[in-house]
Write a structure and sequence with these properties.
286 residues, TIM Barrel, eleven-stranded parallel β-sheet
Length: 286
């Protein structure tokens, strides 16, 4: 499974009817993986897999409160049988604000991974990644899976996570970017995207570990915080922040372009060109 250094991440702004087009474009542009967010059910990844030949499809993430391990294991092997070696199962605990049963997240995560491993046909460790922010969850990702998939994090977290994980495990942070030539419009798109995450304690608690405080988190987020976790501006600037995460220890960065509905063809093409993985043209994209 070759993720390469660069992937793209899509959520609910891309409708399921566009999944095939999104996956095909990501593969054509040279990205190594497409991450599907929004707590997906695993069978929906079939459309992404079927539309491509080499692209790794990863979940970012399957919510472990919404699945039984046996069901998820069965669905994984059905898809892996059709598309061998191309599905990476990202799983995670979600957020207390979104899950009424939320308790003891580390214990629940261990139990769920135990369930995946105890199945008649276990999910292989190297086909699993764990959503992880804090030190204990990062440790668990290194002990039990291929590695960690952090979300909504600054470069400082990537550096910390690499030090915590050590040299071997995968570190694949998500990075949201607002590609726009108008600074005010780009910053507004970044803030609109960030608003929900700045109300979730797992994310705000993690940001506080790296020196951000109420003045950064309240009232839509400070400029400094937005520049760190949702950089806005040119594709070249976005590529430079991706490069900073790689330099800090990331193996693979999952790039999410925000402020766009549907397949973000223009933005993905511009970022791919800025990263140096695409030099051609895509039909219908200027």
């Amino acid at each position: 499974m070759n993720l390469t250094n660069f992937g793209v991440w899509i959520g609910r702004s891309v409708p399921q009817s566009d999944y095939g087009a999104a996956a095909g474009l990501a593969e054509e542009l040279g990205f190594g993986a497409l991450w599907l967010g929004g707590s997906p059910r695993l069978p929906v990844t079939r459309e992404l897999l079927a539309a491509t030949e080499r692209l790794v499809i990863a979940t970012g993430i399957v919510n472990i409160w919404q699945y039984e391990p046996a069901e998820l294991t069965r669905e994984f092997h059905e898809l892996d049988g059709e598309f061998p070696g191309r599905l990476l199962l990202g799983v995670g605990i979600g957020h207390p604000e979104a899950t009424s049963e939320y308790q003891k997240p580390l214990t629940k995560s261990r139990e769920f991974l135990d369930g995946l491993a105890a199945a008649a046909r276990p999910v292989p460790r190297d086909r699993l990644a764990l959503a992880a922010l804090g030190p204990k969850m990062l440790d668990l990702s290194a002990e039990r899976t291929l590695g960690a998939h952090p979300y909504f994090v600054p470069v400082e977290h990537t550096k910390f996570a690499r030090q915590r994980l050590g040299a071997g495990p995968l570190l694949a942070p998500e990075l949201a970017v607002a590609i726009d030539s108008d600074p005010e419009r780009g910053r507004a798109a970044a803030r609109k995207y960030a608003a929900m995450y700045l109300r979730l304690s797992n994310y705000t608690g993690n940001l506080r570990r790296f020196g951000y405080d109420d003045s950064d988190i309240d009232d839509g987020g400070s400029d400094a915080l937005m520049d760190a976790v949702v950089p806005s501006g040119s594709a070249e600037h976005a590529a430079s922040v991706v490069g900073a995460h790689i330099a800090a220890g990331a193996d693979h960065v999952c790039i999410q372009t925000v402020g766009v509905s549907g397949v973000p063809a223009e933005q993905w093409t511009a970022v791919a060109a800025a990263l140096g993985i695409w030099e051609g043209s895509v039909s219908g994209v200027s």
